[in-house]
Amino acid sequence: MTTELKNDRYLRALAKEPVDRTPIWMMRQAGRYLPEYREVRKEAGDFMSLCRNAELACEVTLQPLRRFPLDAAILFSDILTIPDAMGLGLYFAEGEGPKFERPLRDRQSVEAIGIPDPEDDLGYVMRAVSTIRRELKGEVPLIGFSGSPWTLATYMVEGGSSKNFSEVKKMMFSEPQTMHLLLEKLAESVTSYLNAQIANGAQSLMIFDTWGGVLSPRDYQEFSLRYMEQIISGLTREADGRKVPVTLFTKNGGQWLEFMAATGCDALGVDWTTNMGDARARVGDKVALQGNMDPSMLYASPERIREEVETILQSYGTGTGHVFNLGHGIHPGVNPEHAKAFIEAVTELSPKYHK
Ligand SMILES: Cc1c2[nH]c(c1CCC(=O)O)Cc1[nH]c(c(CCC(=O)O)c1C)Cc1[nH]c(c(CCC(=O)O)c1C)Cc1[nH]c(c(C)c1CCC(=O)O)C2
């Protein structure tokens, strides 16, 4: 396995080491906005078949890197692989997003689920990780990922995506011990899953807490943050003689950055509802920051996108510790030329902030 990286700007920025320009990657950079992705997806059939095929998962991971000068690759998979391996029966209904055949609604069903073995039950993810790492040939680092226990629990109890989270909150408030049992099992599963991704070649990790921001401040600490902290303390933090940085992203978590920074993570993902400069002032030298352009800005003209990139660079200010990204995943309807304009704006405008 190649351990020497040709481009380590992303890892350097996360370690707060000097860089020549701000590194960039995009959440959901492999996906439906790319015609070449839609082509492979059609060939694979459904989305999970694509995830289960290491060669095709590798192919779609590399697609955005062939088009754009990105500084990191992210494993092509999904956060819902763990609940699927727990036996909930994941499927994707066309145009409706993820669904589970057997959602968890009571103590009994939570007690019945086990901890998946990452090399066996989730072996297809590990094969994708090692295939991608090999095929990257040391060009850029590979990011592995998982959902946070709370975010996974929302899908598992709701049975899919949700608008008001009434089922999962019903369990949280009426049977808190059942919810904690579920979160405990998920934290254990996520820890071994992420450690297996590192063992198979992931060089950096991201934890997606997409739905932590729907909780009250107190419940966020008790039901989401605490379990992410537990995961971080159980992770292998070095591979190939290099630190494996962990980025924590709670969407709509701007008000909790100080608490998030105290979990032992290396970086925080920030969405566009928080000002980058304010975020930096609040976390100080504790962690690096990733973000934070509104993904919908990619519907604007390339000129307007460029202007927004400059605003965000200026807001973060000079020096290292910033990884440019969108504040959430790129939308399927975005014109790839606009994504290109966005990435080029970051590569062209950022060097002056690193002199
Ligand atoms: C909440 C969540 C999920 N999955 C994920 C999250 C956390 C990040 C976030 O908040 O967006 C994480 C995820 N999902 C996917 C990746 C791949 C890596 C990347 O390029 O970033 C990553 C990192 C591929 C995907 N995961 C999914 C797709 C679309 C599948 C398709 O091709 O039809 C992709 C490319 C499916 C998925 N998976 C999930 C949903 C809600 C959906 C449907 C949304 C949609 O249809 O756009 C759950």
Automatic annotation (TrEMBL):
Lineage, opening ranks:
Bacteria, Pseudomonadati, Pseudomonadota, Gammaproteobacteria, Alteromonadales
Function of this protein?
Catalyzes the decarboxylation of four acetate groups of uroporphyrinogen-III to yield coproporphyrinogen-III.
> Which superkingdom?
Bacteria
Which keywords does this chain's UniProt record carry? Cytoplasm, Decarboxylase, Lyase, Porphyrin biosynthesis
GO cellular component annotations of the record: cytosol
Q: Which family does it belong to?
A: Belongs to the uroporphyrinogen decarboxylase family.
Organism from which the protein derives: Aliidiomarina taiwanensis
Name of the molecule in the record: Uroporphyrinogen decarboxylase
Record pathway: Porphyrin-containing compound metabolism; protoporphyrin-IX biosynthesis; coproporphyrinogen-III from 5-aminolevulinate: step 4/4
Cross-referenced PANTHER family: METHYLTETRAHYDROFOLATE:HOMOCYSTEINE METHYLTRANSFERASE RELATED, UROPORPHYRINOGEN DECARBOXYLASE
The cellular location(s) given in this protein's UniProt record come to: Cytoplasm
Q: Which positions fall inside the Uroporphyrinogen decarboxylase (URO-D) domain? A: 23-32, 143-159
Task: Please state the protein's primary subcellular location.
Answer: cytoplasm
